[in-house]
Amino acid sequence: MLVRSVGLAPLLLLLFAGACADAADPEPGPPIDGPVNACTVPTLTAEPAPASALTAFAYDRAAPYDPVLQPIGTAPGGVTIHALSFLSPRGTGRATGRLIVPEGTGPFAGLLLMHGLPGNAEQMIGAGVELARHGAVVVALDAPFARRAGDVLSFTPADSVEQVQLMTDLQRAVDLLVARPDVDGSRIGYVGVSYGGAMGALFAGIERRLKTAVLVVADGGLVSHFTGPEDFGSDFAARTCPERRRWAESMIPIEPIKYIGFASPTPLLLQSGREDNLVPPRDAERLHAAAPEPKTIQWYDAGHGLPVGASRNRILWLQTHLGMRAPDF
């Protein structure tokens, strides 16, 4: 997610081990403008989305998507790294990212890996290599904002369009993994960090082929992140009242916390930091409460970057649920 109250400052780039950092407010808050200049903006409530809302993320699974791979490097242990692109299901150009493949013929687990905001797939290569070493073919996907110039968020309805596009791109990435002969299509998982964790709460509610999902330092989504009482100095709060109203109206119907309830029976692992000032524990707790069983919640005495022990616990979780290899650190 974004650093609160200081605009679009970069987050910690959250990866898996050692030097790599681990990377919802469903209740109505006070008026964004405070008591001096009240502005009527729709507020996020705890009410989940209706099942009919899932149709907003539908796409034609039979349509061609023209995946293109280009080798760009290797990593210790025989891991190969490819530049990846394929046609976005929403007809908005090509989705891009990285495909990271372990040595051998498999079949391996398949994993989707999602970065923070701002961020991109390139920054997740270290985490992807670690996952590949433990027995997964990994797709690290670029969010739509990482594929274009300009501000990461516009605080206009265009942000809603891009969030829906990300969900369809992620579903298409599952198609790509399932089609590979070196991937066991019954062992597909998702790991998302910060913004990627919040988007995973939405994706886990949409994508029924996931065997498990891991949400790391996640809150309930962009509305949750920008409309809390601590956000009066954020970029969103600086917008005019009509701008905030239009953005909230477009984003609330697709706020991830409203969809995570559809994830059942997919097992969820939620990891959060008690000292996190980017995703305050209160926001994390609201996402945890909305998550359905079966779920496991792990708290760490850490900020937005979780310790190495959290990385090890993730690998153990993926070993249990996807048949990946045990951690070696």
The value of Rg in angstroms is 19 Å
* Average pLDDT taken over every residue: 89
Quaternary class: single chain
Given the structure, what is the number of helices?
7
Question: How many domains would you count in the coordinates?
Answer: 1
**In the CATH hierarchy, what is the class?**
Alpha Beta
The CATH homology group name? Alpha/Beta hydrolase fold, catalytic domain
Would you count the extended β strands for me?
Answer: 9
Largest sheet: 9 strands, mixed
Q: Hey, roughly how much beta strand do the residues contain?
A: 15-25%
Describe this structure in words.
α1 links the parallel β4 and β5. The chain has a nine-stranded mixed beta sheet with strand order 1-2-3-5-4-6-7-8-9, sandwiched between helices. The N terminus is likely disordered. Helices cover 26% and strands 20% of the residues. It is built from seven helices and nine strands; from the N terminus they run ββββαβαβαβααβαβα.
Short description:
With about 325 residues, this protein is of the alpha/beta class. The chain is built from seven helices and nine strands. It has helices spanning about 125-135, 160-180, 195-205, 220-225, 240-250, 280-290, 310-320; strands at about 70-75, 80-85, 95-100, 110-115, 135-140, 185-195, 210-215, 270-275, 295-300.
Strands, helices and their partners?
Layout: E1 68-75, E2 79-87, E3 94-101, E4 108-114, H1 125-133, E5 136-141, H2 158-179, E6 183-193, H3 195-206, E7 212-216, H4 222-226, H5 241-251, E8 268-273, H6 281-290, E9 295-300, H7 308-322
Parallel strand pairs: 4-5, 4-6, 6-7, 7-8, 8-9
Antiparallel strand pairs: 1-2, 2-3, 3-5
